[in-house]
Amino acid sequence: MINDLDTKINSLAAQLDQELINFRRDLHAHPELGFAEHRTTDRIMARLTAAGLTPQRLSSGTGVLCDIVGEGAEGLPLIGLRGDIDALPIPDGKDVAYRSTTPGVCHACGHDVHTTVVLGTGLVLARLRDLGLLDKPVRLIFQPAEEASPGGAPGTIEAGALDGVDEVYAFHCDPRTEVGKIALRVGPITSASDRVLVRLTGGGGHTSRPHLTADLITALAQIAVTAPLLLSRRIDPRGGTSLIWGRIRSGTAANAIPDIGELEGTVRSTQVGGWRDAQRILPDLIRQIAAPYGAGVQVTVTPGVPPTVNHAAGVRRLTEAAAAILGGDAIALTEQSLGGEDFSWMLDKVPGAMARLGVRSPDATEVVDIHQPRFSPDERAIGIGVRVFSRLCTTAAAR
After folding, report:
1. How far, in Å, CA of 229 to CA of 243, rounded?
2. How far is residue 176's CA from residue 334's CA, in Å, rounded to a whole number?
3. Which residues on adjacent β-strands are paired with residue 247?
4. Beta-carbon neighbour count of residue 164 at 10 Å?
């Protein structure tokens, strides 16, 4: 029966391959930032409705929940599949027909792929349901604002996305894994991530008389260099905590000491303990570094996400589904990254796993990372993800 079901899944997915590629390209051409994904939401709603399903828009206005319940499966625990739908404030650097039409915004993280995989899985499962071949209930979760800080996952959970859900899964595009494969690990697969903003103020003045004002440029430079080093001496190194700056801004003239300056970056940690310690220690540490310069100091640490921690049973389930539908060679091990991912909030509530979905073409001569304008996934990954998720949702639940 399983072999027959695998054949049916492959057949149904193959029928959708080109449609899903076109759907993904349409999303890519019309990217929308977090909590503004109105067109994306409309497109998802329309296609699910056309498949005979009953999607529900989140009350926030963007994002969708959609249950698919097989005959006799009413009231059984749900399997949740999450796809994030927002884009990034990054210009599209690709020369393709479906290049972003929204200036300064594109799907540089592969969320258009994630969304299309979950949508395609829903279409396959809807057809299996109609054929009487789906005996488990599934919830499609199209989540807004994964890239925002704080992200959209907590609000999606509050809207009921995990109510009745027994296990939850997600894919994330991985340009270092070849298309046709998925990569997994038990335990943390991403890291905690917070944003740090340092704002210094002073009276301003002439560079010939630095003793009459607060030298903000030097103070900012001192914080930029010293804070990461001191933080590493105040936190258990086993927590893998890293403070990296991404933006520094102050002044407009070479001979004028400015009256305001900003330094912004992220603090990341592989462990929850290090994450919490950094939140507690960092503001006072920065104020101490800035104190000798006499500047006003405001430190804002915006909580982001905890590590995404894969459950052993969820990894096993995804591994078995991928091996059955793709073959044992399709599964690879992956390392924990320092990237942040708000799917972590869902795995904090419900067991499951996130897998890295291979999107690197075999003939690629370079690896263009996510969050880069030229990031371009191999679109064959869409069908791979659909087949694995469909197989996952038609086998026994994780225990």
Report:
1. 9
2. 10
3. 264
4. 13
Mean pLDDT of the chain, nearest integer: 96
d(CA 148, CA 194): 11
Give backbone dihedrals phi and psi of 13, rounded to 5 degrees, phi first.
Answer: -65, -40
Do residues 344 and 306 make contact, with C-beta atoms less than 8 angstroms apart?
Answer: yes
Give the domain ranges of the chain: 2-190+307-392, 192-305
Cα–Cα dist 169/81, whole Å: 5
User: Checking DSSP bridges between strand 182-184 and strand 331-333, what pairing results, if any?
Assistant: parallel
Asked if residue 397 has pLDDT above 60, the reply is no
341-367: string of b/e by CB count within 10 Å (b at 16+)?
A: bbbbbbbeebbbbbbbbbbbbeeeeee
Query: 358 — phi, psi (to 5°)?
Result: -65, 125
Q: How far is it, in rounded angstroms, from Cα 24 to Cα 379? A: 9
Please, how many CA atoms are within 13 Å of residue 396, restricted to the half-sphere of its CB? 5
The pTM (predicted TM-score) of the whole model is: 0.93
Sheet holding 296-305, edge to edge: 242-250, 260-269, 192-201, 296-305
Dist. CA 132–CA 336, nearest whole Å: 40
pLDDT of residue 398: 41
Assign domain 2-190+307-392 to its CATH architecture: 3-Layer(aba) Sandwich (3.40)
Tallying the residues shown for the chain, one arrives at 399
Q: Are 112 and 43 spatial neighbours (Cβ–Cβ below 8 Å)? A: no
Please, are residues 340 and 268 in contact by the beta-carbon 8 Å criterion? Answer: yes
What is the distance between the alpha carbons of residues 344 and 349, in angstroms, rounded to a whole number?
9
Give the tens place of pLDDT for each residue, 121-149: 999 999 999 999 999 999 999 999 999 98
Cα 312–Cα 314–Cα 317 angle in degrees, nearest 5: 110
Distance of CA 166 to the CA centre of its chain: 21
192-305: what CATH class?
A: alpha beta
Residue-wise pLDDT for 44-98, tens only, equals: 999 999 999 999 999 999 999 999 998 888 889 999 999 999 999 999 999 999 9
Rounded (10°) CA dihedral 240, 246, 249, 255: 80
